[in-house]
């Protein structure tokens, strides 16, 4: 018969109360478990796979690690070479602006308090940009997709016209042009 240790140090034949002194026997907390592959904490301890590296605690097989989250940024710039005869002069001294894409869906457009439109990529300086011009959507795999929302003046990706409501996959350093003279460059970080 196994012996259980009571809080007073007696070896007890019972697992709930000490058979020598009658003190309540409290089970010792189990030590925290870490993944033997990557060292990450295993919470809760009854999980089968490591959430960081995919290690299988039941079989000991090494899993596929989760891909690192892909971070995307957009740099907004004015490109005077895009100006046409119908375009007004671009704003002077405009400094390029880099915007991190922190949401899964990021609206490109102009703000409108009246219509409650607040784009993540606000291009208020260019009146040829629609209020709801285009979207930059992140896929579950972390890729980035461009979708023109039927804008009045259209959108170009690397110099080619984007069809409205058509998803266009983006890659690092792709160029999006819209409005009178606005150029967006997407980059992975």
SSE topology:
Blueprint: E1 4-5, E2 11-12, E3 72-78, E4 97-100, E5 105-109, E6 121-122, E7 134-138, E8 144-148, E9 155-157, E10 160-161, E11 167-170, E12 175-178, E13 182-188
Parallel strand pairs: 5-6
Antiparallel strand pairs: 1-2, 3-4, 3-13, 5-7, 7-8, 8-11, 9-10, 9-12, 12-13
Structural class by secondary-structure content: mainly beta
Radius of gyration using CA atoms only: 30 Å
Quote the CATH topology of the domain at 72-188.
Answer: Tumour Suppressor Smad4
Q: What's the CATH class of the domain at 72-188, please?
A: Mainly Beta
Can you tell me the overall shape? elongated
Largest sheet: 6 strands, antiparallel
**CATH architectural label of the domain at 72-188:** Sandwich
User: Total helix count?
Assistant: 0
Measured between the Cα atoms of the first and last residue, the distance is 62 Å
Integer average pLDDT: 87
Strand proportion, as a percent range, falls in 25-35%
**Regions with pLDDT < 50 over 5+ consecutive residues?**
none
Order of helices and strands: EEEEEEEEEEEEE
Summarize the amount of helix as a percent range. Answer: under 10%
Total E-strand runs = 13
| Strand order, largest beta sheet | 4-3-13-12-9-10
Features:
single chain, mainly beta, Tumour Suppressor Smad4, five-stranded mixed β-sheet
Q: What's a concise summary of this model?
A:
The chain is mainly β.
